[in-house]
Amino acid sequence: MPQLTEQNVREVLIDASMQKAVFLYFFVDAPECAKATQALTSAITDSNEYISLVTADISQPVAQAVAMQMGLQSVPALIVFQNGKPVEALQGDDITAHLQETMNKYMPSETDLKLREALQDEAAGDVSAACAKAAEAYKLDNKNLQAKHIYARLLIATKNLDKAKEILDNPGREESESSEYQDLLSALNLALKAQDSPELANLAAEYKQNPTDELALKYAAALVNAGKKADALELLFELLKQDLSKAEVKKTFLDILSTMAGDPLQGKYRRRLYTLMY
């Protein structure tokens, strides 16, 4: 980890804090600083993507000069820099007592990290994996509107319309007035209207008259495209109950399940299939 020197003050404090938080730690090599030094050097390593630890030995002239400029009276002391300016300070026992709490302010939460992964998966074209990550993020913090809206958008994209409707129901006043929520609601309503397409009705009638596996698979695919995954699963499950050796039916059934991460129906139908198999 970098140490404060006359040559690197601007680089490690001002410039670096434009990219991520810099924790500038003033100390002396003495027992009164040992606990804070151990806590900081253990908690903030060079591999930390969000916080940089810079140490300033107060016995050195440059550290003394910076400490005086900041009005520090004693060590150990911790000054947090962000965007080139000091934004927070801890001294003495408060460093160890409030270190994790302070670090959490400058690091993304587990929810944020899951959302970041979800968006990366979506950008890579794996919408199903993205939806699964968004489901995890929403489960971690269902009060987080960003997590809720990203999850809802991905549910609509993967035709999990019942689940999307469930989480978009009963919004708070502020949320209901937001443009993002209104856009999601419009997308959901359009998708729900598509459920009642003439093509789907025709396939339903055709399958009823001639219930072959080929038509069942075609009808199930149309149900999925219309956001009626539960109906598609039930249709295919009835066929598997009659004959578990129907390989294409079983494959399609499992393919549908793989797109339903975060939906309780996924677990329900997996358990029903395993009961049939074992």
List the helices and strands and how they pair.
Layout: H1 9-15, E1 21-27, H2 31-43, E2 51-57, H3 61-69, E3 77-82, E4 85-91, H4 94-97, H5 99-106, H6 110-123, H7 127-140, H8 145-157, H9 161-168, H10 173-176, H11 179-194, H12 198-209, H13 213-225, H14 229-242, H15 247-258, H16 264-277
Parallel strand pairs: 1-2
Antiparallel strand pairs: 1-3, 3-4
Helix pairs in contact: 6-7, 7-8, 8-9, 8-11, 9-11, 12-13, 13-14, 14-15, 14-16
Description:
With 278 residues, the chain is α+β, with helices and mostly antiparallel strands. The protein folds into three domains: 9-106, Glutaredoxin (3-Layer(aba) Sandwich); 110-194, Serine Threonine Protein Phosphatase 5, Tetratricopeptide repeat, CATH 1.25.40.10; 198-277, Serine Threonine Protein Phosphatase 5, Tetratricopeptide repeat (Alpha Horseshoe), CATH 1.25.40.10. The protein is built from 16 helices and four strands. The protein has helices spanning 9-15, 31-43, 61-69, 94-97, 99-106, 110-123, 127-140, 145-157, 161-168, 173-176, 179-194, 198-209, 213-225, 229-242, 247-258, 264-277; strands spanning 21-27, 51-57, 77-82, 85-91. Strands 2-1-3-4 form a four-stranded mixed sheet, sandwiched between helices. It is elongated and about 90 Å long.
